[in-house]
Each structure stands twice: as C-alpha cells, then as structure tokens.
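Protein modeling request. Please complete all fields; requests missing the sequence field cannot be processed.
Requester role: graduate student
Desired output: 3D structure, token encoding
Chains: 1
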Amino acid sequence: MDLFIICFLFAVAVGSFCYGIWRRKYPSAKAKKTLYKDLEQRAKTGDKEAMYALAERFYHERDAKYYPVIFKWVSILAAQEKDPAVWLLLGDLYASGCGTERDPKRALSSYEQALTADIASGRNTDLTKEAHDYLESCIIRLRKELSK
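Delivered output (148 residues):
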C-alpha cells in the first residue's frame, strides 16, 4: 500500500511539473491578453525590451491582424537601435509585405543594416550563424531581384 501511495504522489508531482511547463509554453487566452497588455504599456513608456518582446510574440502568432502592430514597434526600435535582430525582423516585414507594403529596396537596406551591425560588433550579437547566413542569402536574393 505504501508503494502505491508513493507512486501516486510521484505521478501527481511529475504531472503537475509537466502541466506547468506546458502552460508556460501555451498560455491561456486570458494570460496572453494580460501579458500583451503589460508589454504594450511598458513599450509605450519607451521600454525597448518590451517593444521587442511584443513584436516578437505577435510575429510568432502568425496572425495577419498583428502585422501592423509588429511593424509599428519594430520601426520604432530600428530608428533607435543598431540591433541586428531588429533590423532582420524589419527586413522580413518589408520583404514579405506584412504590416506594410512590400518594398524590396527597404528590405535590402534593412538586411544590409543588420549584417553591418552584426559584423561591426565582431559577431558578438544574438544572431546565430544560421541567422547570419540567412541574412546573406536574403541580400543576394534581393540584389538579384532588384537588378532585373
């Protein structure tokens, strides 16, 4: 009987732990709304981390209704920061036409800014090797597209 109780308590503990991890990865609609509202309030006060977090979270939602909001915050950040991740996201928005008109020239310019910022920092940024390679491939692709 004692073994049964120990196994039961262990299963409850493991289940609670897994549920907690799942809940953090997939928050409820109410929790998302609260988080987004908090991030937006902080972003409006000029908190750059909140601006980026808000844009990144909305971007990962992959919902077209959020793209104008993403573009707004990323544009504000790009004007203030030399962060390659911000410029990369701005380039993606211009290249795909999400939140703004598709503009290959501005996309190319944004990608070049991101690559320049990444190289200027001695590659000591948050960009991974894959992101760096992605930037280079986007620049090559857009240069070919614009030269036609």
